[in-house]
Amino acid sequence: MMTDAPLILWFRRDLRLADHPMLTAAVATGRSLIPVFILDPETEATGAAARWRLGLSVDDFAQRIAGLGSRLVLRRGPAGDVLDRLIAETGAAGVMWSRLYDPASRARDGAVKAALKARGLIAESHPGHVLFEPWTVETGQGGFYRVYTPFWKAVKDRAAGAALPPPAALRPPTAWPASDRLQDWHLGRDMHRGAAVVAQHQAVGEVAARARLDRFLAQSVGDYREARDFPAREATSRLSENLTYGEISPRLIWHAGMRAHHEGAAGAEHFLKELVWRDFAWHLMYHTPHIATANWREDWSRFPWRDDNPDAERWRRGMTGEPFVDAALREMYVTGTMHNRARMIVASYLTKHLLTHWKVGLDWFAQCLTDWDPASNAMGWQWVAGSGPDAAPYFRIFNPASQAEKFDPDGQYRRRYIAEMSRTPGPEALAYFDAVPISWGLDPAARYPRPVVDLAQGRARALAAYARRDGVD
Ligand code: FAD
Predict the structure, then answer these.
(1) What pTM, to 2 d.p., does this model score?
(2) Which of 28, 181, 191, 283 makes a 20 to 30 Å CA pair with 473?
């Protein structure tokens, strides 16, 4: 079938060609296709590192699209207005996109869909960002899951559907609408000196994501379960960075993990369980959108968290004097990501030893992470803080010193990121000082700071605050 009016393909966090349900459906219409990426206010609101990293992804994807005889048109402005203008310019029959599940995207996409439908235009959304869409996983009573283990049991044997092949070509329109130039968007403007440092740690785009998956399955999946907690080791997949921008589909990872599991790879099932935590986070965000902005459990609203404060600023700068905590925060500043165990430790330290609201930490992660994911970030912070669904109880306070002894026994991770702890600091430790704003006035030759809080006193203060809050938890 060939129809004259083109279709607009509105790409957002689905910057790949393989296993892309919307792309497959669009090609099947036989229409000419106009791929578009829109820098709308929702996207502009993304934190500094994630916005910069998104630009790398868009650039890579534009090249892949060009390889199929097509183009990625770039436009800026509110998505509804931009799409209206493009439809007027091209005579397009409508728009297709892949669904997102955070409140801002849902509000935007719902309005776009209603407006297009009211004009009798095509307005089609497709799955692909998660394994199982949030409304398709229900408890026996027909509600949503608040606890992970039953969620895992409900999905682990479900068919995820076969992964779709990439299209061989995309039929171009007879005339191309004008496009912005990516560099004119200045997506890295808030990264300052950091971009050059963080860039060395990114694996951008679909090809790099596939290589990461293959390498992980060939080298690391076997002892994933035991090794994944040791931050100095290269034991995890690091695919969170690619999943965030849709450079690889979770379904492709799922099938590859399942194959490894059936072939007897010891850690494969555990890896799949972690992947399903990501789905669970989106499940929670869809059903309880307040998870990103307010205590998930309402009875926590009376907990005496401190708002932003000077101790939290030392935390942000990796200058708390608690080496495991500081190494982790510096790792994030240098690489754009942080090891999962380290995320739990810095979150516990901020919300318990420093008695500071989890929102302060969530916001800093949103600024610094290149794998920032609104759902996993919110779930992770509230899980550690104790205010979230299926959360660790507040009184379970990680001791960063004993965690370091257990998970960084030879101090490799701490030395890798803390220049002040070594006479001959390595490149990552020094890179931190190249990346931070000059205004912070940090110097690798300075003495490592004294602890901002005594661990025993911080723990006692947290427990006292918890005890005073009757009704909490
Ligand atoms: P692997 O161990 O290889 O796991 C494979 C995949 O499973 C990951 O890529 C990820 O998609 C998923 N996954 C693994 N662990 C988790 C988890 N605990 N929760 C949800 N999904 C998981 N993850 C993000 O992607 N973005 C965030 O912004 C984010 N913020 C976090 C904040 C806090 C306070 C905490 C405790 C965790 C956060 N996580 C976040 C979850 C987790 O730390 C990362 O997904 C993980 O470190 C990514 O490394 P990896 O890709 O090597 O994971």
Answers:
(1) 0.97
(2) 283
